[in-house]
Amino acid sequence: MSAFDKYLHAVIVRAMHEAHEDGSATIDAHHLLLSLSADQGSTAQQVLASGGLDRAAVRDALDREFEHSLSMVGVSPAAYDLPRPSHASQQPKMGASARLALERSFASARKKDLRSAHLLLGILQAQIGTVPRALALAGVDQAELADRVRQTLNSQDQ
After folding, report:
1. Residue ranges of the chain with pLDDT lower than 70?
2. CA pair distance 158, 65, nearest whole angstrom
3. Do 7 and 1 form a contact (C-beta atoms < 8 A)?
4. What confidence tens digit (pLDDT) does each residue in 40-64 have?
5. Residue 156: predicted pLDDT
6. How far apart are CA 48 and CA 100, in angstroms?
7. Separation between Cα atoms, residue 5 and residue 13, nearest integer Å
8. What pLDDT shows up at residue 75?
9. What is the pLDDT of residue 54?
10. Which superkingdom, per the lineage (predicted)?
11. What predicted TM-score, i.e. pTM, was given to this entire model?
12. Which of 36, 91, 123, 142 is the 20 to 30 Å CA partner of 11?
């Protein structure tokens, strides 16, 4: 098992924990983003932090996206005492958005060259979904953040 394989496994395990805490049956791209933002010292975490996105900021953005989505169908979380998510009895499985993010990550470089920033780039390349909505609501320019990831990768390749 390569160093990147071990790293990817650790990211997915953290994402699985995030999904479990959310009461989600699937690991989605936003769980991967939370996992990367919590990975102290990684290039992905440093790029996110440079854009003002530490783990708490990512969690806040995702919470705002959830509230915004509810408000679009006429539900105000402030008006209801919504229960905390119940923890699923089974381990979360890989969801479609996470699989797509990983596929985009793997397509961006040869396996031996993959790093944490490639995972982040795969997440940021999504045009629709929870992550783009959360970043937009947080005032984060997703395209600019993706460009910053690409610049970081290019500078590391030299």
Report:
1. 82-83, 85-89, 157-158
2. 38
3. no
4. 999 999 999 999 999 999 999 999 9
5. 79
6. 20
7. 12
8. 80
9. 96
10. Bacteria
11. 0.91
12. 142
Phi/psi region, residue 7 (left: phi>0; alpha: psi -120 to 50; beta: rest), is alpha
Residue appearing with tokens 């993706």: 146
Residue-by-residue DSSP string for the chain: --HHHHHHHHHHHHHHHHHHHHT-SEE-HHHHHHHHHTSTTSHHHHHHHHTT--HHHHHHHHHHHHHHHHHHTT--GGGS-PPPPPPPSSPPEEPHHHHHHHHHHHHTS-GGG--HHHHHHHHHT-SSSHHHHHHHHTT--HHHHHHHHHHHHHHHH-
**How many residues in total does the chain contain?**
158
Burial class (CB in 10 A: 0-12, 13-18, 19+), 87: exposed
Residue 114 near residue 93, CB atoms below 8 Å: no
Give the tokens for residue 60. 């806040």
Residue 102's alpha-carbon distances to 46, 77, 79, 97, 118, in angstroms, are: 20, 32, 38, 9, 9
Give strand pairing partners of 93: 26
User: Quick check: 147 and 47 in contact, CB under 8 A?
Assistant: no
Provide the token pair at 113: 């060259």
